[in-house]
Amino acid sequence: MNYPKNNNKTFILLNIKNRYKDGMSKEEIYQVTKEAWRIDKQKIKKVRHAIAIYSKNVKGIFSILRWYRNDDGRWGFDGKLVSPDMYKKYTNQEYRMYGPLGYL
């Protein structure tokens, strides 16, 4: 697979397979993507974007404005949709997920 080049690992891939339903709006996809993830605190320091993946396909890409911890110790983020150009760059790829998250 030829993923777009990004040596800084500033993207996190989040598998939303148990949360996604056909016909969800962008806001609904954001809400199911933004929390609650078990992520190494050191790794999230670099991460600036989250890509929501369902069945190998991109369902949403978000710029991360800030990370926060939930009451259960898992991480969530506040964010916003990326520009249409950035969205187009990453949606033409298939992303195979073998767990709940990965880095790009």
Per-chain topology:
Elements: E1 11-15, H1 26-33, E2 35-37, H2 41-44, E3 49-54, E4 57-69, E5 75-81, H3 84-91, E6 101-103
Parallel strand pairs: 1-3
Antiparallel strand pairs: 1-6, 2-5, 3-4, 4-5
**Portion in helices:** 10-25%
What is the alpha-carbon Rg in Å? 13 Å
Bulk shape: globular
Query: Beta-strand percentage?
Result: 35-45%
Task: Give a verbal description of the structure.
With 104 residues, this protein is α+β, with helices and mostly antiparallel strands. The protein has one domain. Helices cover 19% and strands 36% of the residues. It contains three helices and six strands; from the N terminus they run βαβαβββαβ. It has helices spanning 26-33, 41-44, 84-91, and strands spanning 11-15, 35-37, 49-54, 57-69, 75-81, 101-103. It has a six-stranded mixed beta sheet with strand order 2-5-4-3-1-6. The longest helix is centred in the N-terminal third of the chain and has 8 residues, at 26-33. Mean pLDDT is 87; it is low at 1-5.
Features:
about 100 residues, disordered N terminus, six-stranded mixed sheet, 6 strands, alpha+beta, about 20% helix, globular
Summarize the structure.
The protein has 104 residues and is an alpha+beta fold. The chain is built from three helices and six strands.
